[in-house]
Request: fold
Amino acid sequence: MATFEVQVEGLTSLSIDGSSAPTQNELTQFLTDGAKEIINHLPKHLLPLCSSEQSFTSGSADTLSTGKVLSVFRSDGDIKQPCRQIDSSYKGRVLDSDDMDYATVTDPVYYIENNAVDVIPDGGSVTYSEVQYPAVAYGDSVIGAISLSGVRATAADPTVFTKSSHGLSTGDVVKLSNFTEMTEINGMMGTITKLDANTFEVNGVSADPEETTGGNVVKLGGFPDEAEHLVVLFGAIKALQNKMGSKFSELPTDITLSTLPVAPVPPTLSSNQIGALGTAPLYTAPKVGGATEELTATIEAATAGEATDKYDFSRWFDLAADYIEDEEDIELAQAQIQKISTYLNAYAQAMQNQMNVFNDANVEYQAELQRVTENARLSSQDDAQLLQKYSSELGAYSTEVQIYQADASTKIQNYSAKIQKHNTDYQWLAGQYKQLKEDYAAGLQRLIGG
Reply:
């Protein structure tokens, strides 16, 4: 069976590793949280599948893991007598032999206090069943009450497995996986023989070479088989939510427009020139919708609902991040990203309009320059040289403006394409997120309904 990581990747089309969004460690937490949530919704007849038996001597309270105690028995020396539960405030009364609720070895009681369970009368052998929350690792393929990673193994007959405080008991059935050196044991199942708190054997396993890297050992049972797919769905939902939250930080920030060309300064001609030259036309960068900042202004913090932030471009990116990460509002986030793309398109159109204005003014200015040149007839050869030089500079300036406009248009188009790609990816993630949530809710309902 495929690992839970592979199953989640199949549902989400994400590639998960140690540095992705989400990371493998985050996926482990998602899966573990999912198993816990599902257990908390299980009907009573399935809870024993998720429990383990513990033992202690009455009078020495035993600390609980989850507090979900299913049954408690105290031995009277011959048989295990079922214990009735009382509120901890009544523990004094059940010690009074004259009280109708008096506890005896054949009618013992148990109570829970300060996250520990104890039984009255004292001094008896007690066993109780408590629901356990399993740890589910991304590399597991089954869910058990105990999931161990980094388990080393000796090349001996029988093989001895080592894991500090492994928590396994003799008789537990385990499955072996992800051993990178002793690969022949992957997929094998066997019964545990506990040697001590840190070592154990798996009956029938004697292999080589020695495993020094460490594999996985999962105790089977402890979770309903029919609910395992819901844990995968839960993990996939949280993985998609994590990925959507990271989309803001992945937005492209590489749009940098070139410096605007500098217009040449008109020459000062001799006093006998006819007419006077006006100021050469300047190309002015556009501003869309009355915005007060350049397109490449620093991104600023914003607050949803603030009037200024609705039309201030430099605050729109932070609004998109708030919708995704804080409010988890997929539809508003998509609308905000589309709003940014629309603004970029408007900016590109405004730039073209500004270019057209510049070109029209430049044609008129060139014609005026030719008229002045012709009328003056250059009483001075120096004036003729100055005007010729200025005319060449104007031509070079016009060429530079054309190059600037083409470069800026290309950069804006590329940036818009990247924004659109992110928007498309986000919409797919949002759609898959919605579908998986519906599948999870339906599956959980069927499980609860029995």
Remarks:
- The longest strand covers residues 211-219.
- The two ends are 26 Å apart (CA to CA).
- DSSP finds seven helices and 14 strands in the chain.
- The mean pLDDT is 86.
